[in-house]
Specification:
This protein is mainly α. It has 13 helices and no strands. Helix 2 runs antiparallel to helix 10, helix 5 packs across helix 8 and helix 6 crosses helix 8.
Length: 318
């Protein structure tokens, strides 16, 4: 999540929970860094899982495991699933745009790009929300400051793609980063749609959405008859399990705990840390070495986010 639109959505979600956000304490910082580690390491785990599974199998397995974790939490805590049809119709759209489709696009895109680069490309999501909100959300107009931040972030994308961006003949290699950018667009659309989410317990909403996403992805997986070839080794199996249980299920619980405890503005700090985390763990664990242009693109994207989210100082009245 990122940007003011995301902070407002998260604030609305936190309103369905008990408690009022307070000044972040030590426990809040610990949970924040745990969430950064979980979401930032997802790209690394996808890269490992690709050694034994297809992209569709990874996204489907991740959703099934994550949904099972959240449904277990719902059952243990005594919560109940919503029963009205209008909520479930909205959940279907959120499941498709917020989970099933972007999970597959990221997994498919990482077949051709390093995990660190995928993490950097996903950092543009707050800028996507900014652009979409201008057209789809009343009152969210793009100001000069926001426009300048968007242009800076977009220039970072151009720098990231490098020679691929200017070569139409290299469409095959260009398709992989574009798939990851497509996932960022899906997440941005999902943020706009999430504004219409009814006032329900966010954990219940997340469990419902993940359940539907798992069902959609599993139906596609069965219909296409995906063949993963030889049985996966221990590392890909562990990576898939960790993706579902920790990076999808547990991360969702942490997300709402932080929003409820310290507020959505505090949570928005992860926008600046997750791409850096993805680059670092990709280099340390997988030995990835990104070119200087990738780091320059990261700086431009993060700079664009800072500019677009900053607020001008109010003028002093005489």
């Amino acid at each position: 999540p990122g940007g003011r639109s995301v902070r407002r959505v998260a604030s609305a979600a936190s309103g369905a929970m008990t408690g009022t956000p307070h000044q972040p304490g030590f426990a809040d910082w610990v949970m924040l860094w745990c969430l950064v580690a979980l979401w930032g390491s997802a790209f690394l785990l996808i890269a490992v899982a690709l050694d034994g599974y297809s992209p569709l199998t990874i996204s489907t397995g991740r959703l099934i495991i994550g949904a099972a974790v959240l449904l277990l939490i719902v059952a243990i805590s005594g919560r109940s699933m919503p029963r009205d049809r209008s909520s479930w119709r909205l959940f279907v759209l959120m499941a498709l745009l917020g989970n099933a489709l972007p999970f597959f696009l990221v997994s498919w895109g990482q077949q051709g790009i390093p995990s660190g680069l995928a993490g950097i490309l996903m950092a543009v999501m707050p800028l996507v929300v900014l652009a979409l909100a201008h057209f789809l959300v009343p009152g969210e107009r793009v100001t000069r400051r926001r426009l300048f931040g968007f242009v800076a972030g977009f220039s970072g994308i151009v720098v990231l793609l490098g020679p691929r961006a200017g070569s139409l003949s290299d469409a095959s290699s260009l398709a992989y980063p574009i798939a990851v950018l497509g996932a960022a667009v899906c997440y941005g659309l999902n943020v706009i749609i999430a504004r219409r989410t009814p006032s329900l317990d966010p954990v219940v909403v997340s469990a419902s959405v993940l359940l539907l996403a798992a069902a959609i992805s599993a139906a596609v997986w069965l219909a296409t008859g995906v063949d993963d070839g030889a049985p996966a080794g221990a590392a890909p199996r562990f990576a898939l399990l960790a993706l579902g249980a920790f990076c999808t299920g547990l991360a969702t619980v942490l997300y709402y705990r932080i929003v409820n405890s310290a507020g959505a503005t505090f949570l928005s700090l992860i926008n600046y840390v997750i791409p850096v985390w993805a680059v670092v763990v990709g280099a340390l664990v997988l030995g990835e070495r990104l070119p200087p242009s990738a780091l320059a693109g990261l700086a431009l994207i993060l700079g664009g986010i800072v500019i677009s989210q900053s607020r001008p100082r109010p003028r002093a009245r005489p």
